[in-house]
Structure formats: C-alpha cells, structure tokens
Amino acid sequence: IAGITQAPTSQILAAGRRMTLRCTQDMRHNAMYWYRQDLGLGLRLIHYSNTAGTTGKGEVPDGYSVSRANTDDFPLTLASAVPSQTSVYFCASSDSSESYNEQFFGPGTRLTVL
Amino acid sequence: GQNIDQPTEMTATEGAIVQINCTYQTSGFNGLFWYQQHAGEAPTFLSYNVLDGLEEKGRFSSFLSRSKGYSYLLLKELQMKDSASYLCAAGDSNYQLIWGAGTKLIIKP
Prior knowledge:
The complex is a heterodimer. By secondary structure, chain A is mainly beta. Chain A has no helices and 11 strands. Chain B is mainly β. Chain B has strands spanning 3-5, 9-13, 18-25, 32-37, 44-49, 53-57, 60-65, 70-75, 84-91, 97-99, 103-108. The interface between A and B is medium-sized, with 22 and 23 residues.
C-alpha cells in the first residue's frame, strides 16, 4: 500500500441499508478526515480524527458515524442510507492537525443511494 | 461565518497565462492551500501560503494577502493537461480546512 486507499471504488445501495466505507493509510499520519463532494459545492467535512482513539464532528455529520481504533484505519458508516447521501466520498490524512495541515487524499468512493 | 469564494469556471488558451482568484473569511487563519483536481480523481496539493507574498513553483505561483483575505493561483505556459478544477482552502483557528467549491479551468488549443 502506498498512501491512502479507499474501498469500494463505487457502490449502488438501496435506501435504508447500512454501509461502511473503508479507508486505510500507510503514512503513519495522526489526523484523518472524511469529506463528501457534491457538484457545485466544496468539499464538506463529515467527521475527523486528530489521533487514534479520538473523533470529532465536521460540518455535515448527521447520518454518519466513524471510529478510529488504530492509526491506519478510519471507516465511515452510514447506518441507514438515504438518497441525499448520494455523493463522492473522499478520505484524507495529514501528519498533524495542529500546524501545517497539508492533506493527502484517497481516490474516493462514488456512492449512489436509490 | 466561514466562506470561500472563487469563480465557478474559467477558459484560457494553451500557452497563455491565467489567474484564479480566491477570497476567504474564516474564524482565525492558518494558511491558504491550492489543490488541483482532475475530473474523476482525488485532489492533489499544489501550494501553500501562510505569509503575505508570492510563492513560485515552476509554472505555478500562488499569492496571499492576509489583510485583504485574498489569494490567487497563477498558471503560466498553460498546457492541455492543466484542464482541471482548482480548489482553494483556508485553514481556520482549529486548523480545519474550509474549502471553496472549486474553479473549473478549461484550456482551449
């Protein structure tokens, strides 16, 4: 693995189903982030984690949950998917959340909720 | 509130110069980032400014004026591969990045 990987690449999901998007980084970065990107809107932060064992809510957290059991993994779960959660989801990481915060992005997951 | 403004779309000619502007309002300020995003791909880092002035990196330069809440990305000697969206992002007081919606740059031969 080099950098950040996300799985799946794309997914079509029925409304009401539970879904977990996976994110793994091998850069030993402390901070990790989940964004959604919708046409005409900027990247919007869903949840973040400044270090393993801690998480925080971003701008649009409703309907999503995260966990950070270790440094490398940061899964995003949709408990009961709704069509408004159709989006492209990007996971990102950075070395520090308290200084220069260049973020490195995974390839994204394209999610469609029907 | 926190806000980033940048033009939605710009068109330029191959070989020319283009300037993409960004204005920002954030609670606190911890640097201004520019990212490039090709269609269907992830954003990739281009530049970072935290002090006023111009940072030059090859064909790309980025400028920051903290007093005006203003930045621009300057792309010289445009190539067809520069066709992409350019995202402006400002770090707020919590070091979270606030993102603009991006400027889609179309390069014509």
